[in-house]
Task: structure prediction
Amino acid sequence: MRERWRDLVRVVRRFEGRRVVVAGDLVLDRYWYGAVQRISREAPVPIVRLDRTRLMPGCAANTVMNLASLGAEVLPVGVVGLDREGDALAGLFKEAGVSCRHLVREKGWVTPTKTRVLAGSAHGPRQQLVRVDSGESNAFGPAVVKSVRRALGTALRGAGALIVSDYGYGLAEAVRVGEYAARVKVSALDSRFGLLRFSGLATATPNEEEFENASGVRAGDNRRALERAGEALRARLRLRALLMTRGSRGMCLFEKGRKPLHLPVVGSDQAVDVTGAGDTVIAAYVLSLCAGAPFAQAAHVANVAGGIVVERHGPATTTAGELSARIEAWGKGALA
Result:
């Protein structure tokens, strides 16, 4: 595929304006950065002087931001609370030009939030000391489910793709999002813990751990065993294609009626941070499919996109322009 890199660039140029609906678990990532002053006398823990706070979209919300950064018209569908965190998440979407008209703002709902405290010496690197999660006990009652299903049905009118972004908070299963797959040309699943609970979408993008948990087979270095397990899982989920990400070992594409395709990692195999890389992969992959690319081409584009964001700290995004430039460099042999 390297010798056909121009075809991939043409695919990326068709990203602009593609309408994609993301239905899933919208989470706010909050980062507290500071310096360790001393050990507390109250308990054997460090006292951190807070220097700055950073808010970022997480989980399904990070997929939304990746799609927007790549030029898509993205419509997020999910539940956020009438709280400060919900306001913050909606504000981040609006800053990125993302419509919030299909968000369900629910009274009494705690917007899922992951708060990370990162600290170190005054002039040294920061490391994560603790993570505090909230919003995991929200209940999807009948009224909430009805509101989300109504919002999802409306959002899908005129959309080219649906991404089901399941991070274990319960929306995708409670709302039965998979039932809406037939309404769009492209439907894709990204499920952190429940891959086997879904079937009948066009494609899915599990990472290696998720693949192993669902298939019961360790991927390892046995290519034949991996290919058998991949094809069996694709058939079990009734997918047209399954794209497994393997970190430093690249990706594997299992497509109905075709031989498995093994894609080596593009760029450095020493990732700086893999946080949110799966969100970038599925965004580039789905947009490529919306742009008319076959699964193999879409996988190559997604592979390059993933290689870009793992070079950066925290949940990161890339742009269509940057992605095109990286594909060109790869095609010309400037990248490994």
The chain has a mean pLDDT of 92.
